[in-house]
Amino acid sequence: MTQPVAAIVLAGGRGRRLGDVDKPDLAGRDGRTMLDGVLKAVADALVVVVGPPRDLPPGSISVREDPPGGGPAAAIAAGCAALGERYDAASSELVDALVAVLAADLPYVTALTVHRLCAALDGHPDAGGAVLIDPAGRHQRLVGVWRWDALLAAVQRRDGWHDASVQDLLAQIPVIAAPALGNEATDIDTPDDLARWLGD
Fold first, then answer.
1. Which of 73, 75, 140, 186 could pair covalently with 161 via S-S, beta carbons 3.0-4.6 A apart?
2. 47 inside domain
3. 186 lies in a domain?
């Protein structure tokens, strides 16, 4: 089964609609944080966590976008820069490699979600990424797996991505959309979202 070589996990943001809480650090009824769950989904990959310093599993890389608070597109760019430094962007280890990009507030994402996206991308060699599509038909680009060369080329189109949208960053990459199963594409943005998750 194809797996991503690396993963970029976006663990910044202020959770304004939840009262400025640190969303990745919110724990479910089992005591596991949302970030813990997302990291478990990519446990076999080299993980870059973009956001403030946190206690992370050994071997993880922690970085911040510069300046901090630049938004998810800037965070993806920072994650790519960290991977490029770790591997050397032209390294044979990254040729044809798949890289997962996940928000840290996705409590229903699992390793099976990531494997299914990898399999979808494997079946479409002309696509540069595979993302979940939610029940409303929206492409969830922060629940995706991307070909390293396509992701790096997108980041390198600009000198910086501060305050840019993820749509601007990734829109030029052709994607395969895999229907979300159950709540896979559900993030936690509002008190109602949080209450539903804690009630599961």
1. 73
2. yes
3. yes
Domain holding 118: CATH number? Answer: 3.90.550.10
Tens of pLDDT, residue by residue over 125-140, are 999 999 999 989 999 9
Mean pLDDT, residues 89-95 taken together: 62
Residue range(s) defining the domain that contains residue 109: 6-199
Residue 72 counted as domain residue: yes
Read off the pTM: 0.93
Kindly report the three-state secondary structure assignment for every residue of the chain.
Answer: CCCCCEEEEECCCCCHHHCCCCHHHCECCCCCEHHHHHHHHCCCCEEEEECCCCCCCCCCEEECCCCCCCCHHHHHHHHHHHHHHHHCCCCHHHCCCEEEEEECCCCCCCHHHHHHHHHHHHCCCCCCEEEEECCCCCEEEEEEEEEHHHHHHHHCCCCCCCCCCHHHHHCCCCEEEEECCCCCCCCCCCHHHHHHHHHC
What is the CA 91 to chain-centroid distance, rounded? 22
pLDDT higher than 70, residue 90: no
